[in-house]
Structures are given as structure tokens and as C-alpha cells.
Amino acid sequence: MTTTFHIAPLVYEPEIIAALSDLLIETVEHGGSVSFMHPLEEQVAASFWKSSINSAIAGERVVLGAFEGAYLVGSVTLLLNCPPNQPHRAEIAKMMVRVKHRGKGIGRALLKAAEEQALRRDKWLLTLDTAEEVGAAGLYEKFGFQKVGVIPDFALKPAGGLTGTVIYYKKLN
Asked: What is the mean pLDDT of residues 131-159?
């Protein structure tokens, strides 16, 4: 059975903040290295997403959601606020897909939508990093991102212990 979903920019609404918070908590609970530690409290997750959506309103990022009907099943953030000497660059961040929805093309669709958003803003070089042990390196490589290298012991895993981070880039033009 094929999953039908759509991608849309996210807005500052209580239901969206709650859905993003739930997605972030689930991701961290299942070992996703997205800057937070387990257990992640709901108010901490909500505070992060409120700030993130406010940053999107200010034009500093784009937060995209993947929906199955009205249910948020994934999200990715495109960071646009790079230094003045990097006007051509954006960064992919907080790529998350609900555990039971992984492997259904949602991550690829989110990346494609992020690339389209980047090109609309004349951002033709994308960068990202992902955890060495449990990150989405395979997805990024299949989507054309080039591995630059690994920084060992870069961050704590959500349940503790260190993991390296893999650095990637992709030229869009």
C-alpha cells in the first residue's frame, strides 16, 4: 500500500507546534541525534519549535512538514541565515520522519522540497551534518550529497555516549 502525503511550509499554530514537539520527542526517544537529550520534555521541545517557527517568520529559515492527511509525519528545516560571505549557501537541519513512516519516500520528498526552497532563494550550495552511528547518511548519499569527512566525538547521543558527525554538501546548479 502506497502512503499518500504532501509537503507544506509550517506556520505558527498551536496544533503545529504540538505536532512538531511530538515528532521531535519521538525522534530523540528512538536515538535521533538532533541536538537534544533523552528524555526530552514537552515544554523544551515546544520552546524550540516556537523559536524555530518565529525564525521562519523572520525569513531566517524554512520549516517544512510532511503530512499524511492532517497528521504530521516528518519535517526538515532549511537554515538560510548564513554569514555575509556565504549568500549562496543554506543548511539542511532537523530532518525527522516518524519511525513508522520511514522507508516510504518521505525523507526524499522533504529533501526535494528543501532544495526547491533553497533555489527559490538563490541558495545553490547545501550543507548538512548527520550522526555517524544512527544518522541518515545513506539517504543523503542516495540523494546526491557528497561526504566531506567525519568529526569524531562531535556530540552526545540522546541516551549518552559520544558519536561522530558526518559532514556533507551538495551543489544544486
From this structure: 95
Q: How far from the centroid of its chain's Cα atoms is residue 165's Cα? A: 15
* Distance in angstroms between the alpha carbons of the first and the last residue of the chain: 35
Residues 145, 3, 18: CA angle, nearest 5 degrees: 80
CA 126, 35, 56, 173: dihedral to nearest 10 degrees? 10
Is 11 a domain residue? yes
Mean of the per-residue pLDDT values for the chain?
Answer: 96
Residue-wise pLDDT for 31-83, tens only, equals: 999 999 999 999 999 999 999 999 999 999 999 999 999 999 999 999 999 99
143 within 8 A of 109, measured Cβ to Cβ: no
The H or E element containing residue 49 is helix 42-57
pLDDT score for 2: 56
Q: Is residue 144 included in any domain, yes or no? A: no
Mapped onto helix, strand or coil, the DSSP state of residue 88 is coil
Q: To which H or E segment does residue 21 belong?
A: helix 14-29
CATH number of the CATH domain containing 21:
3.40.630.30
Split into its structural domains, the chain has a count of 1
Count the residues in the chain. 173
Domain span including residue 43: 6-128
